[in-house]
Amino acid sequence: MKKLNKQKAKEDELINERIKKEQDLKLMEENYKNAEDELVGLRMKVKQLQKDCRMYRDELDDIHRENEFDREQLLDSIRDNEKELDFLKRVVTIAFSDEELLKIRQKSQYDSIEHK
């Protein structure tokens, strides 16, 4: 009887061990499946982030081009204004004497609010 009990205990132990191994294997398969699913999700997220990054980079390039265009227009406007100012200075020096210019400056006032 002792031998039979020992054998039964050994069988139960082997069965329990086998059940434990099967459970461990099932758990590993589930973890593997979860890891695969997570990896697929992460890859999709990376692709979306790369797409967003390209879109933002393109937008930045557009903004840089627009700013460069605006900058060139402003520089052209400044050059034109400088030419006009030089011309008007020459006209004033031809049309007025130094004394007349001094009197005009003394009577003139500049309103910084109205820019006049």
Number of helical elements: 2
Radius of gyration: 44 Å
| Poorly predicted parts | none
Shape: rod-shaped
- Give the topology string: H per helix, E per strand: HH
Content of β-strand: under 5%
Q: What oligomeric assembly is this protein in? A: single chain
Distance between the termini: 120 Å
Count the beta strands: 0
How would you classify the helix and strand content by structural class?
Answer: mainly alpha
Main sheet properties: none
Helix coverage percent = over 70%
The averaged pLDDT comes out at 89
Briefly, what is this?
The chain has two helices and no strands.
Describe this structure in words.
This protein has 116 residues and is mostly helical. It has a domain at 2-79. The chain has two helices and no strands.
List keywords for this structure.
0% strand, single chain, mainly alpha, 116 residues
What is the fold's blueprint, element by element?
Elements: H1 2-95, H2 98-107
